[in-house]
Design brief:
Helix content is 30%, strand content 35%. It contains three helices and nine strands, in the order αββββββααβββ.
């Protein structure tokens, strides 16, 4: 009888541990569902529209050095298209759309509009980004952009690196494609 009573606390502790384990698994499942609910579906590119996705990083040197990286979905061309920036968890950080000489950036903090995509990007990033050349570079075609030099040697492997030396501040744009 004594051994049965001695085993009771151990059995109760084992049941409590198993209950806690099941509780943690349940909480992890709820968290995963919640995170999946936060992810917003991306707009699909039309069949005749170019599209790219992957990771991008922009580093701007100088007195106020800054860097930014995110996952992205890019569609269209320099005249009309869209760019969605995503966190590593798939949450939408910002969406940039442009067409007919108008560009709009929507993020959780603000909405900005401009008559020029180049101007809007400069306001947001602090540097000029050669959008027209970028679309050519992504297609593996060298294109001139004042002050920028692009290394297209890795485009076949989904890698693009572009540096700007002039005008200051220096900037580096890195793109790693996933499809």
């Amino acid at each position: 009888m004594q051994s049965l009573y001695g085993a009771m606390p151990r059995l109760a502790m084992a049941a409590q541990t198993q209950s806690a384990f099941i509780g943690w698994r349940f909480m992890l499942a709820i968290c995963a569902l919640w995170l999946a609910g936060c992810a917003q579906p991306l707009q699909k590119a039309a069949a005749d529209e170019d599209s790219w996705s992957g990771r991008l990083a922009l580093q701007v040197e100088g007195q106020d050095s800054q860097s930014f990286s995110a996952m992205f979905e890019l569609r269209g061309n320099a005249k009309a298209g869209g760019l969605v920036l995503l966190s590593p968890l798939g949450n939408r950080l910002a969406q940039l759309d442009w067409k007919d000489g108008h560009a709009q950036l929507v993020s959780s903090q603000e909405t900005r509009s401009s008559d020029s995509l180049d101007t809007l990007l400069q306001e947001v990033t602090g540097t000029r980004i050669p959008v027209t050349a970028l679309f050519s570079w992504l297609q593996g075609t060298q294109a001139a952009a004042p002050g920028w030099r692009a290394d297209l040697s890795g485009v076949a492997d989904g890698r693009l690196v572009a540096h700007r030396d002039d005008p200051q501040p220096q900037a580096t744009l890195r793109v790693a494609l996933t499809r």
